[in-house]
Amino acid sequence: MDCIFCKIINGEIPSNIVYEDDVVSVFLDVNPQADGHSLIVPKKHYNNVLDCDDQTLSHVQEVVKKLYPIYRDRLGCEGLTLIQNNDYGQEVKHYHMHLIPRYADDDLHLETKLQTKNIQEIFDKLK
Ligand code: AMP
Ligand code: ZN
Questions:
Q1: Looking at residue 15, what is its pLDDT?
Q2: What is the pLDDT of residue 108?
């Protein structure tokens, strides 16, 4: 399969791996939005969150909890933003979680605020 993250995991493409276990590899994003921007990537290829089994998803969360204090201590970040794109807006179609360290007054705008509909109209569709 022509997947850049599978190639990184197989060692065909270089990357800066900061953590690894049997299930995931964590490496630095090549185009970081903040210092330490990292990606938690399952070693097995899953396209998106719907495709990924619950055990792996839960392991990803465990790795978040393992790494956050380390990032706080070593990078001096004051927070951690987690982002996970699916399908639309997903550049690499291999499930991954973004870890974006947040620093005091970083003023990082991760999303453009979209024009929104009436909240009641949306709630009626979702409740
Ligand atoms: P997404 O839009 O959620 O699929 O994000 C994909 C992320 O992968 C982007 O932040 C890219 O900068 C990052 N990326 C793409 N190619 C590489 C690579 N070879 N090594 C590390 N990160 C990459
Ligand atoms: Zn892949």
A1: 97
A2: 87
